[in-house]
Design a protein that fits this description.
The chain has two domains: 16-152, 3-Layer(aba) Sandwich (Rossmann fold), CATH 3.40.50.1980; 162-301, 3-Layer(aba) Sandwich (Rossmann fold). 45% of the residues lie in helices and 16% in strands. It contains 16 helices and twelve strands. Helix 3 (49-57) packs across helix 8, helix 8 (137-150) runs antiparallel to helix 9 and helix 9 (154-177) runs parallel beside helix 16 (286-301).
Length: 302
């Protein structure tokens, strides 16, 4: 036991004595433990869009992004802040070969998607394992804080987060002045089904930050709720905001069931609204949240 304690103390003293390492600025707790990087990274690759969003807010451009082979999947507000990057393929299965070819000095990976290849990624470069897919709005801000520390932009990130909270508070005041908004629900839909983004989802957290009521009565830790027409009727939001993937979705099939669909409050009041799934779901981050708030203000003000 004594030798173990001595080893830990020696290791701690060795870390603290590194001349290029400032503990308070370049170490964070990630999903794999304490992450330490010995110098400010210059060649960063990110394997989720939310990480690109965070970097963009402090003027840092990654050299590679897992963008599902489509640069337009990123929000224009994010793209405008970034220099050209190399596509790393699908977020679900990024190309290790392409990552390695970029010779990165930092990889930022998603815990849910990439924990299984963490060891392989770590052989290429120091890998920061953070939450992204399924994260809450608050967790996203915490992740942004950690990214700011690791890229030595902590002061800039804290200022941006402060400014973001002011912006969102202003939008909240605007919504409070709009009478009878009612409940608001975002869902993604494709040909196979519909998934409600619940209060613990990113979009649900943004709506809560804006002071808007969820129609889901019992808060659940499940971010994405698979939904039938009958379940949608039991929730029955005043506003149904739909991010569609594909030209034909299950919602089109439900429209054929006229009697049930007509029971939806959102249908009765012409409040089933198409929105961008890229904005409302894929691009989580401060720029996305502010875009959601702006989009929603435009929707409910009409």
């Amino acid at each position: 036991m004594l030798s173990r304690i001595t080893s830990v103390l020696v290791l701690g003293m060795a870390i603290l004595s590194l001349p290029s390492l400032t503990w308070a600025e370049l170490s964070v707790q990630d999903e794999n433990g304490v992450f330490i990087i010995s110098e400010v990274p210059k060649r960063i690759v990110v394997l989720e869009l939310s990480f690109a969003n965070a970097l963009a807010t402090v003027g840092v451009s990654p050299v590679g992004i897992a963008d599902d082979n489509d640069e337009n999947i990123l929000l224009p507000e994010v793209k405008s802040q970034l220099k050209p990057w190399v596509s790393l393929g699908m977020r679900s299965q990024p190309s290790l070969e392409n990552i390695s070819a970029l010779q990165p000095d930092l990889i930022i990976a998603d815990f849910e998607r990439h924990a299984s290849v963490y060891e392989n990624l770590s052989l290429i470069a120091p890998t920061l394992l953070l939450k992204s897919r399924g994260e809450t709005y608050q967790e996203n801000l915490e992740t942004a804080t950690k990214i700011g520390i690791v890229v030595s932009k902590s002061t800039e990130m804290q200022k941006r987060i402060h400014d973001h909270k002011v912006i969102m508070a202003d939008y909240r005041q605007t919504f409070e002045k709009i009478k009878d908004v009612g409940t608001v629900q975002f869902a993604v839909v494709n040909s196979r089904g519909m998934w409600l983004h619940g209060p613990s989802s990113y979009a649900g957290g943004v709506l809560n930050a804006l002071g808007l009521e969820s129609p889901i009565p019992n808060k659940t830790s499940t971010a994405y709720l698979p939904t039938s027409l009958e379940l949608l009727l039991s929730v029955n939001p005043n506003w149904l905001l739909v991010g569609a993937y594909g030209d034909h979705t299950i919602l089109d099939d439900w429209y054929e069931n006229t009697s049930l669909v007509q029971m939806l409050h959102s249908m009765q009041n012409d409040r089933i609204i198409d929105v961008s799934p890229e904005l409302w779901s894929l691009n989580r981050g401060m720029l996305a949240a502010e875009g959601i708030a702006k989009n929603l203000q435009e929707i409910v003000s009409h």
